[in-house]
Amino acid sequence: MWLKKKTEKELIEGIIRSDVSSYEEVYRHWFPLLRTFVFGMVKDSARAEDIAQNVLMKLWLRRDRLDSTLSLALRACQERDIQCVEIQGAPSSLLY
After folding, report:
1. What does the pLDDT profile of the chain (96 residues) look like in tens digits?
2. What CA–CA distance (Å, rounded) separates 62 from 70?
């Protein structure tokens, strides 16, 4: 399992403290999962990669607003970048 070294809560707390290694660990785990999820909606690998990168970049840029009690999966689903998939052709029922 990917969280053997640190729990998800510890990783989020690390990101809140601007710990780059925590962010890198989260990025390595979540990027392929997000990219695959988004690709299933947009059917375009370049767009899926861009959206996944934007979601994870915003996680870092907004780290001062993170809540360590929320799971990273829930946080990713809340990001507006996932909502932009609807504009790019995915049915809105997939997003809510």
Report:
1. 454 578 888 998 999 999 999 999 999 998 999 899 889 888 999 989 988 898 889 889 988 888 777 666 656 655 554 554 444 444 444 433
2. 14
Longest Cα–Cα distance in the chain: 39
Kindly report the pTM of this predicted structure.
0.70
SS3 63: helix
Enumerate domains of the chain plus CATH numbers. Answer: 8-90 (1.10.1740)
Cα–Cα distance measured from residue 70 to residue 78, given in angstroms and rounded to the nearest whole number: 11
DSSP 8-state class, residue 7: -
- Distances in Å between the Cα of 41 and the Cα atoms of 13, 32, 57, 88 are 31, 15, 20, 9
Q: How far apart are CA 46 and CA 1, in angstroms?
A: 28
Look at the block and give the residue holding tokens 């870092």. Answer: 60
